[in-house]
Write a structure and sequence with these properties.
By secondary structure, this protein is α/β, with parallel strands linked by helices. Helices cover 29% and strands 17% of the residues. It has one domain: Purple Acid Phosphatase, chain A, domain 2. The two termini are 31 Å apart.
């Protein structure tokens, strides 16, 4: 039976619904799906995206939700004392235009006043965020291993045992992981680093198709270590190309 993976959605409910339709055509309503994170920010309907996922889980769908860096930014913003992510570039924060948190708040009908203070805005906005949405963010898993596959948002630090990987790396890493040519203990399926279309690099399968930049969410089906992108025309095999760029 196939296992399906969905990359970064970034507040695009229409793109999520299309991906779920493609999965339904291929695997039926009971298809097992792992979402690799970044449900929020940049797109127009973060609220709709989270609600769709919450409703699917409540309906008994075998769906697993992993944590992306943007999801953690939103989660931390709504803590009792809003927390800043130290991984961000100096001067950046969740509401910075390059991050996209303001679009997320807009989907909950929250306006961001000029010169707003983080703590005041967090407290003012919190009543407009459904408690089940905040619980969804808090309950996200960092990784999920299924057989020889490892699903994670950003990647792993090469050469480090899975038990010793940090959340920081698994939701933020890029360069060292993307450029690595080593064979990892598992085939790593990840998002975070947008590309035009899913690829199979031999040691990893990136599936962030760039929904944040107007492209599609392209789900990927796995039969063991074999990977297939799902399109309107059916499955497209992703053959290992031994390219790690």
């Amino acid at each position: 039976m196939a296992l399906y993976a969905v990359g970064d959605i970034h507040g695009h409910l229409d793109k999520l619904d299309r991906a779920l339709e493609l999965i339904g055509r291929d695997g039926g309503a009971s298809a097992e799906v792992i979402f690799v994170g970044d449900y929020v920010d940049r797109g127009p309907d973060t609220r709709g995206v989270i609600q769709r996922l919450v409703d699917g889980k409540a309906a008994g769908r075998p769906w697993t939700f992993l944590k992306g860096n943007h999801d953690r930014l939103m989660e931390w913003f709504f803590e009792d004392v809003p927390r800043h992510d130290p991984h961000l570039i100096m001067g950046h924060h969740w509401l910075h235009e390059q991050i996209g948190g303001e679009a997320t708040l807009a989907s909950y009908d929250v306006e961001v006043p000029k010169q707003a203070r983080m703590g005041e805005l967090s407290r003012a906005a919190r009543p407009k965020i459904p408690t089940e949405h905040l619980a969804f963010l808090r309950d996200l898993e960092v990784s999920r291993q299924v057989g020889d596959l490892l699903f994670v948002h950003a990647g792993i630090r090469p050469g480090v045992p899975l038990a010793d990987q940090t959340e920081e790396d698994m939701i933020w890493i890029r360069g060292e992981f993307l450029s690595s040519t080593v064979t990892h203990p598992h085939l790593v399926v990840h998002g975070h680093s947008p590309i035009q279309f899913p690829r199979h690099h031999g040691n990893r399968v990136p599936i962030d198709g760039g929904a944040a930049f107007g492209r599609d969410v392209v789900p990927v089906a796995f039969e063991g270590l074999q990977a297939f992108a799902l399109t309107e025309d059916g499955r497209v095999p992703l053959e290992p190309d031994d390219s790690h760029a």
